[in-house]
Specification:
Layout: E1 6-12, H1 19-27, E2 34-41, H2 47-57, E3 61-66, H3 71-81, E4 86-89, E5 95-96, H4 100-111, E6 115-125, E7 128-132, E8 139-142, H5 144-154, E9 173-176, H6 177-182, H7 196-204, E10 210-222, H8 236-253, H9 261-280, H10 285-295, H11 298-301, H12 313-323, H13 327-345
Parallel strand pairs: 1-2, 1-4, 2-3, 6-10
Antiparallel strand pairs: 4-9, 5-10, 6-7, 6-9, 8-10
Helix pairs in contact: 7-8, 8-9, 9-10, 9-12, 12-13
Length: 346
């Protein structure tokens, strides 16, 4: 037999509750010519045993047991053994439509593309599912269009209202495995840099000759897992990792975005996101101000030349208060916004 059409890499850590839902959605794919690489990242629960059981039941399943190293390095372990024409990633608390990889594979074959992205759902529970449509028809990017597309993953230009056009995560796409192997493209650790996915995209996309974005929503991104990275409580490591991400993106995009506006807009958006996380935390007032002051560090904001006035009013207010370290006012403002939004939801 030849190589499988798609290698699906599933990093696994402490997801015993969600793993069956994830694996059932992958094992029942309408595209049968796949390999499923389960990477047990030193999981402390029953997941290692569950992985071995899946491998016994289906010979398409490969299992890697490794010492805990984080999501990025777990994905790298899967990439090291992936033999498919294309590679996909699924987070183990998420799940996918049963025709996802058949649809994606047919699209890359139809367009003779290196990569395809699809739209997705955010899934809170069976009664709260939100569809995210970045495109309304098949969109083709070639040549310089791929470079522009890669920049839109980082952040939008000043004339755009949204902070970025496309979801940057790697879980709603297929990647040409030849490109990954030939250029040894791998993930950095999320313990060192925030959003390892966007760095991976910026390493990979310059080598892709053609990229497709399709309107089909095929992936369910689960937001109900309180132990996930996106639910983690704010601490100073977040600021360190945001700055590390900013520096990496500036370096990767310096030839195509010499002013660094895209990386700066991403930084501004992450600073705003983290300000909200601090506001919503159970830290006391003094600790919240301490962390907000950290986000207002003059060293990083002195590098920002992005025109803040191009942001919408709400984002401008937050960025202005952060840049000028007016954090007592910022905290009151964010609390007020939270209260108003709760009132409007009633």
């Amino acid at each position: 037999m030849g190589n499988p059409k798609v290698s699906i890499i599933v990093p696994i850590y402490n997801v015993e509750r969600y793993l069956p839902r994830c694996m059932n959605s992958i094992l029942n794919q309408t595209l049968k010519d796949i390999e499923i690489i389960m990477v047990d990242d030193g999981s402390p629960d029953n997941c290692p045993k569950m992985c071995d059981e899946y491998a016994k039941k289906d010979d398409r399943v490969k299992v890697i047991h490794k010492k805990n190293g984080g999501l990025g390095y777990a994905r790298n372990s899967g990439l090291d053994v992936a033999t498919g024409e294309y590679v996909a990633f699924v987070d183990s608390d998420d799940f996918v439509k049963e025709n996802m990889y058949e649809v994606l594979y047919k699209k890359v074959e139809q367009y003779k593309a290196d990569t395809v992205f699809c739209c997705f759902y955010t899934y809170y529970n069976e009664h709260n599912i939100q569809d995210h449509k970045n495109v309304n028809k098949d969109v083709v990017f070639e040549g310089k269009g791929v470079i522009d597309f890669a920049l839109d993953f980082v952040g939008s230009s000043p004339d755009e209202r949204r902070d970025w056009k496309y979801e940057k995560s790697v879980w709603h796409s297929l990647y040409n495995n030849s490109i990954l192997k030939n250029y040894h493209i791998r993930f950095r650790s999320e313990r060192e840099i925030l959003s390892e996915d966007i760095v991976f995209q910026e390493l990979y996309l310059p080598f892709a000759k053609k990229v497709i974005y399709i309107p089909d929503s095929l992936y369910y991104y689960f937001l109900g897992n309180e132990s996930s990275l996106t639910s983690a409580k704010y601490d100073s490591t977040w600021f360190t990792r945001v700055v590390a991400l900013y520096n990496s993106i500036c370096d990767l995009t310096k030839n195509i975005d010499p002013k660094g506006f895209r990386a700066q807009r991403q930084l501004i958006a992450y600073m705003r996101y983290n300000a909200y996380r601090i506001t919503d935390s159970d830290h006391d007032y003094n600790k919240k101000i301490y962390y907000l002051n950290e986000l207002s560090g003059k060293e990083i904001w002195s590098k920002i030349s992005f025109p803040l006035t191009s942001l919408n009013l709400h984002s401008f207010i937050i960025a202005f208060l952060q840049k000028h370290s007016i954090n007592n006012v910022l905290l009151m403002y964010l609390k007020m916004i939270r209260v108003l939004r709760r009132i409007l939801k009633k």
